[in-house]
Design goal:
9 helices, elongated
Length: about 170
């Protein structure tokens, strides 16, 4: 405001005062808009981070429903393979296998290297439970290529590849 009054009282040309006042007012409005935008951005980031922290804390406390809620909110705004994997595990532990598969897929889209060998095996099992045997076989073989000593995984993969032979043994 002081700037506006200075322009009025110290102006030599009466015609030049009005445009200068409008420039000063416009500058003040622009500064307010910038500050407002920065404030909103800061609050948004803080809220998103809070969802991540609450989701991870709930997961550690085995409150998987609560964890999935917060991690979903977080992943709506951010791309984070680690959070996607935690969400997948929360869904898997709640027996929501289709949602778990989607969360694993999202993690894979963003960063396939983020999956540990054990997570590859869990993903393969989820795919098999959801009736996707060919894709499950691919991930099971990827797991076994690095864990050749895992007899349980070998038996599981063999049963997945040859379902007829395991059903004959059961009878």
């Amino acid at each position: 405001m002081k700037l506006c009054w200075d322009m009025i009282f110290n102006a030599k040309k009466p015609n030049s005062v009005l445009p200068d006042i409008f420039k000063a007012i416009n500058h003040q409005r622009n500064m307010r808009r910038i500050l407002y935008s920065l404030s909103i951005a800061f609050l948004f980031t803080a809220c998103v981070q809070t969802h991540y922290e609450k989701g991870m804390q709930a997961y550690d406390q085995m409150a998987y429903q609560k964890a999935s809620h917060h991690l979903e909110k977080y992943l709506e705004k951010k791309t984070d393979p680690k959070a996607s994997l935690k969400l997948a595990e929360a869904y898997r532990k709640m027996d929501k296998f289709e949602e778990a598969e989607k969360a694993y897929s999202k993690a894979l889209q963003n960063d396939e290297a983020s999956l540990s060998n054990r997570e590859k095996y869990k993903y393969a099992q989820l795919l098999a439970m959801n009736g996707k045997s060919e894709e499950a076989t691919k991930w099971g073989e990827a797991y076994l290529s690095e864990n050749t000593e895992d007899e349980q995984a070998k038996a599981w993969l063999e049963a997945l590849k040859n379902p007829a032979s395991t059903s004959e043994e059961v009878e």
